[in-house]
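User: Please work through this fold.
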Amino acid sequence: MFKKTLKFKKVFLGTAIGCQLFGVTGVAMAVDCPEGRIAFTTVPEIVISGQPCVVFETTVEGKIEVTNSPSIDLQRVDVGGPVTVTGTTTGGPNTIEQNATILRVDILAGDLTVSGNTTAIVAGNTLQQGNLTVNNNVGAYVGRNSVNGNIQCVGNVELDAFGNRASGTNNCVPQ
Protein backbone atom coordinates (compact mmCIF):
# COMPACT_ATOMS: atom_id res chain seq x y z
CA MET A 1 0.00 0.00 0.00
CA PHE A 2 2.83 2.39 0.87
CA LYS A 3 4.47 1.89 -2.58
CA LYS A 4 1.15 2.61 -4.39
CA THR A 5 0.62 5.79 -2.36
CA LEU A 6 4.17 6.94 -3.05
CA LYS A 7 3.76 6.19 -6.78
CA PHE A 8 0.47 8.18 -6.87
CA LYS A 9 2.15 11.13 -5.14
CA LYS A 10 5.02 11.11 -7.67
CA VAL A 11 2.63 10.98 -10.65
CA PHE A 12 0.39 13.68 -9.14
CA LEU A 13 3.36 15.95 -8.35
CA GLY A 14 4.87 15.41 -11.81
CA THR A 15 1.57 16.25 -13.47
CA ALA A 16 1.11 19.36 -11.34
CA ILE A 17 4.62 20.60 -12.15
CA GLY A 18 4.09 19.91 -15.87
CA CYS A 19 0.84 21.83 -15.85
CA GLN A 20 2.48 24.78 -14.15
CA LEU A 21 5.31 24.80 -16.68
CA PHE A 22 2.84 24.93 -19.58
CA GLY A 23 0.49 27.42 -17.95
CA VAL A 24 -2.37 25.00 -17.29
CA THR A 25 -4.21 25.27 -14.00
CA GLY A 26 -6.72 22.98 -12.34
CA VAL A 27 -9.21 25.81 -11.96
CA ALA A 28 -11.31 27.03 -14.85
CA MET A 29 -10.54 30.70 -15.34
CA ALA A 30 -12.94 33.38 -16.51
CA VAL A 31 -12.23 34.76 -19.95
CA ASP A 32 -12.23 38.51 -20.58
CA CYS A 33 -12.37 39.71 -24.17
CA PRO A 34 -8.98 39.43 -25.86
CA GLU A 35 -8.73 41.44 -29.05
CA GLY A 36 -12.35 42.60 -28.68
CA ARG A 37 -13.95 39.29 -29.66
CA ILE A 38 -14.64 35.73 -28.61
CA ALA A 39 -15.88 33.46 -31.37
CA PHE A 40 -16.36 29.80 -32.29
CA THR A 41 -15.11 28.40 -28.99
CA THR A 42 -16.09 27.01 -25.59
CA VAL A 43 -15.12 28.89 -22.44
CA PRO A 44 -15.85 28.31 -18.73
CA GLU A 45 -17.27 31.82 -18.15
CA ILE A 46 -16.90 35.39 -19.40
CA VAL A 47 -16.29 38.42 -17.19
CA ILE A 48 -15.82 41.75 -18.99
CA SER A 49 -15.35 45.15 -17.40
CA GLY A 50 -14.82 48.41 -19.26
CA GLN A 51 -13.95 47.02 -22.67
CA PRO A 52 -16.00 46.45 -25.85
CA CYS A 53 -16.59 42.86 -26.91
CA VAL A 54 -18.33 40.73 -29.54
CA VAL A 55 -19.18 37.18 -28.49
CA PHE A 56 -20.33 35.07 -31.44
CA GLU A 57 -21.13 31.35 -31.91
CA THR A 58 -19.67 30.50 -28.50
CA THR A 59 -20.58 28.10 -25.70
CA VAL A 60 -20.16 29.49 -22.19
CA GLU A 61 -20.32 26.78 -19.54
CA GLY A 62 -21.07 29.20 -16.69
CA LYS A 63 -22.00 32.87 -16.44
CA ILE A 64 -21.51 35.99 -18.53
CA GLU A 65 -20.98 39.18 -16.54
CA VAL A 66 -20.44 42.51 -18.31
CA THR A 67 -20.04 45.88 -16.56
CA ASN A 68 -19.34 49.33 -17.97
CA SER A 69 -18.48 48.13 -21.46
CA PRO A 70 -18.91 50.74 -24.20
CA SER A 71 -20.33 48.03 -26.47
CA ILE A 72 -21.30 44.41 -25.87
CA ASP A 73 -22.66 42.18 -28.64
CA LEU A 74 -23.75 38.62 -27.80
CA GLN A 75 -25.00 36.64 -30.79
CA ARG A 76 -25.81 32.95 -31.07
CA VAL A 77 -24.29 32.09 -27.70
CA ASP A 78 -25.22 29.07 -25.54
CA VAL A 79 -24.85 29.83 -21.83
CA GLY A 80 -25.01 27.46 -18.87
CA GLY A 81 -25.56 30.15 -16.22
CA PRO A 82 -26.87 33.68 -15.74
CA VAL A 83 -26.11 36.63 -18.05
CA THR A 84 -25.78 40.12 -16.55
CA VAL A 85 -25.06 43.24 -18.61
CA THR A 86 -24.87 46.38 -16.49
CA GLY A 87 -23.99 49.85 -17.73
CA THR A 88 -23.75 53.28 -16.16
CA THR A 89 -26.19 55.89 -17.42
CA THR A 90 -26.02 58.27 -14.46
CA GLY A 91 -25.17 61.31 -16.61
CA GLY A 92 -22.31 63.73 -16.26
CA PRO A 93 -18.86 63.88 -17.84
CA ASN A 94 -17.76 60.43 -16.63
CA THR A 95 -20.73 58.48 -17.99
CA ILE A 96 -19.88 55.52 -20.18
CA GLU A 97 -22.29 55.20 -23.08
CA GLN A 98 -22.97 51.49 -23.18
CA ASN A 99 -24.82 49.75 -25.98
CA ALA A 100 -25.91 46.16 -25.39
CA THR A 101 -27.06 43.79 -28.12
CA ILE A 102 -28.17 40.33 -27.01
CA LEU A 103 -29.53 38.28 -29.93
CA ARG A 104 -30.37 34.58 -30.12
CA VAL A 105 -28.76 33.65 -26.82
CA ASP A 106 -29.88 30.33 -25.30
CA ILE A 107 -29.58 30.27 -21.50
CA LEU A 108 -29.90 26.83 -19.94
CA ALA A 109 -30.35 27.84 -16.29
CA GLY A 110 -30.14 31.41 -15.09
CA ASP A 111 -31.49 34.90 -15.55
CA LEU A 112 -30.79 37.45 -18.27
CA THR A 113 -30.50 40.92 -16.77
CA VAL A 114 -29.84 44.02 -18.88
CA SER A 115 -29.83 47.35 -17.03
CA GLY A 116 -28.38 50.85 -17.09
CA ASN A 117 -27.51 50.93 -20.79
CA THR A 118 -27.87 53.73 -23.30
CA THR A 119 -29.35 51.30 -25.83
CA ALA A 120 -30.41 47.72 -25.10
CA ILE A 121 -31.50 45.36 -27.87
CA VAL A 122 -32.70 42.05 -26.43
CA ALA A 123 -34.32 39.84 -29.07
CA GLY A 124 -34.84 36.23 -30.05
CA ASN A 125 -33.42 34.81 -26.82
CA THR A 126 -34.50 31.63 -25.03
CA LEU A 127 -34.33 31.23 -21.27
CA GLN A 128 -35.04 27.59 -20.50
CA GLN A 129 -35.17 28.23 -16.77
CA GLY A 130 -34.91 31.81 -15.52
CA ASN A 131 -36.22 35.36 -15.75
CA LEU A 132 -35.63 38.16 -18.25
CA THR A 133 -35.19 41.62 -16.75
CA VAL A 134 -34.64 44.73 -18.90
CA ASN A 135 -34.69 47.70 -16.53
CA ASN A 136 -33.51 51.32 -16.36
CA ASN A 137 -32.13 51.63 -19.87
CA VAL A 138 -32.46 54.83 -21.87
CA GLY A 139 -33.77 52.96 -24.93
CA ALA A 140 -34.82 49.30 -24.92
CA TYR A 141 -36.01 47.06 -27.75
CA VAL A 142 -37.27 43.75 -26.35
CA GLY A 143 -38.78 41.35 -28.86
CA ARG A 144 -39.54 37.71 -29.55
CA ASN A 145 -37.94 36.32 -26.39
CA SER A 146 -39.15 32.99 -25.01
CA VAL A 147 -38.82 32.70 -21.23
CA ASN A 148 -39.66 29.81 -18.93
CA GLY A 149 -40.11 32.30 -16.08
CA ASN A 150 -41.02 35.98 -15.81
CA ILE A 151 -40.30 38.97 -18.05
CA GLN A 152 -39.90 42.41 -16.46
CA CYS A 153 -39.27 45.72 -18.22
CA VAL A 154 -39.38 48.67 -15.81
CA GLY A 155 -37.87 52.15 -15.76
CA ASN A 156 -36.76 52.27 -19.39
CA VAL A 157 -37.05 55.80 -20.81
CA GLU A 158 -38.20 54.41 -24.18
CA LEU A 159 -39.44 50.84 -24.61
CA ASP A 160 -40.38 48.99 -27.78
CA ALA A 161 -41.59 45.50 -26.86
CA PHE A 162 -43.50 42.85 -28.80
CA GLY A 163 -43.86 39.11 -29.28
CA ASN A 164 -42.35 38.10 -25.93
CA ARG A 165 -43.59 34.85 -24.36
CA ALA A 166 -43.29 33.95 -20.69
CA SER A 167 -44.56 30.99 -18.68
CA GLY A 168 -44.96 33.40 -15.74
CA THR A 169 -45.80 37.10 -15.71
CA ASN A 170 -44.91 39.39 -18.59
CA ASN A 171 -45.03 43.12 -17.87
CA CYS A 172 -42.80 43.99 -20.80
CA VAL A 173 -45.19 46.20 -22.71
CA PRO A 174 -44.62 49.74 -23.93
CA GLN A 175 -45.66 52.29 -21.30
Remarks:
- Residues 2-21 form the longest helix (20 residues).
- The CA atoms of residues 63 and 127 lie 13 Å apart.
- The mean pLDDT is 82.
- The first strand starts at residue 37 and ends at 39.
